[in-house]
Design brief:
cytoplasm; alpha/beta; 18 strands; Orn/DAP/Arg_de-COase; 384 residues; decarboxylase; polyamine biosynthesis; 11 helices; Carboxynorspermidine/carboxyspermidine decarboxylase
């Protein structure tokens, strides 16, 4: 029934966000907030869809952002009330005056950034992103604590105390973790710093964790931070909320043999989910069967030779015109999608209680506007 509902999209490619799954992912976070007395922010860099953020407004405490445009969008959705917490290595001096008005918290990424820009941030609560120098990720592309990291102030540089005016600390050093041991180890490392900073008001523990099975020990730790140090504690999940709630529906355009293997060309592209190419990931395909007797290469429709989703096994190789559904693409897919070769972006749907609702479609005019220059008006237009 669920698969048939996804297939009922009018045109493909289509991105479908399952709002019931988002709600399911939110429940353990809200339970943790109630038990531990912490605050939950959604990190909108994962997926900043307006209808998603509207659905979260009032249920969570605010949004985590990484740029001026994200901050504006979060502020607009929140209607000027709620938490907007910003951290970025790339703060621009020309933007700081506006950011200080629309962000409630700004975590400066380096001591240099803090010294140059913090004096202008009179209205936001000022903090520092710190690097606890603890790596829990094997792939350095994801590791904020990699050697020569650009993310955060080395905790050793703060052994003598914090700069005047710092009201909070922020760290983020895991990715997609179901184990909270890294968090416990990180808190142990920064506890001496907390003890030396009685004027701190808040601590942002970042994202990167899945909270579906949060242990009781985590509740106790969060309570202790709040009660022992008088801190407001923030969590900022992104993928934990939307990662497994997103689907990409596509249609097989062509099927042929290439050097003894079947190739299926679909009407989407890895450019609609660039992390497939960036990190050589093979997304989950609902239509595949690991025990299937047949295999086929599923490839995108652009001219890039590496526009390939992967080799999948099937009980029956799909025919031209059949739909395929990629799963678990809710985070860092649509936000990174592009129109390489001029192929359109996916239509956007929400799915709730078995009902699909079209949310966004992109016409040629949107593509043209992106590349059109007022000083270079095309001389040829198709006849009406």
């Amino acid at each position: 029934m669920f698969r048939a509902c996804l297939e009922s999209v009018e045109t493909t490619p289509a991105f479908v966000l399952d709002m019931d799954k988002v709600a399911e992912n939110l429940r353990p976070l809200l339970a943790l907030r109630d038990m531990a007395g912490c605050h939950v922010l959604y990190s909108i860099k994962a997926l900043p869809l307006g209808f998603l953020m509207e659905s979260l407004r009032g249920r969570i405490d605010g949004f985590s952002v990484s740029s001026l445009f994200e901050a504006r969008w979060a502020y607009e959705i929140l209607g000027g009330s709620g938490t907007v917490h910003l951290t970025s290595p790339g703060l621009r001096p020309a933007e700081i005056a506006e950011l200080r008005k629309i962000c409630t918290h700004i975590s400066f990424n380096s001591l240099s950034q803090y010294q140059r820009l913090a004096d202008n941030s009179l209205y936001a609560s000022k903090g520092l992103r710190i690097n606890p120098k603890l790596s829990f990720i094997d792939d350095p592309r994801f590791d904020p604590c990699r050697p020569h990291s650009k993310l955060g102030v080395d905790v050793a540089e703060l052994s003598g105390g914090l700069p005047p005016g710092v009201k909070g600390l922020h760290f983020h050093n895991v990715f997609d973790s179901t184990d909270f041991t890294p968090l416990m180890k990180t808190l142990a490392v920064i506890q001496p710093l907390l003890m030396k900073a009685p004027t701190l008001h808040w601590l942002n523990l970042g994202g990167g964790y899945r909270y579906r099975d949060a242990p009781g020990q985590l509740v106790q730790v969060l309570r202790r931070l709040r009660e022992s140090f008088g801190l407001s504690v923030f969590l900022e999940p992104g993928k934990a909320l939307v990662g497994d709630a997103g689907y990409l529906v596509t249609t097989v355009l062509d099927r042929f043999d290439s050097d003894g293997k079947t190739v299926l060309i679909v009407d989407t592209s890895i450019n609609h989910h660039p992390e497939v190419f960036e990190y050589q990931r093979q997304p989950r395909l609902l239509d595949s069967d690991e025990y299937g007797l047949h295999s086929a290469i599923v490839a995108g429709s652009t001219c890039l030779a590496g526009d390939v989703f992967g080799t999948y096994r099937f009980r029956r190789v799909p025919e031209v015109g059949e739909k395929l559904v990629f799963a678990e693409l809710g985070a860092y897919s649509l936000i990174k999608a592009n129109r390489f070769n001029g192929y359109n972006l996916p239509d956007v749907y929400s799915l709730s209680a078995g009902s699909l609702q079209i949310r966004q479609q992109y016409a040629y005019d949107v593509y043209r506007e992106q590349w059109h220059s007022a000083n270079c008006e095309p001389s040829l237009r198709p006849a009406d």
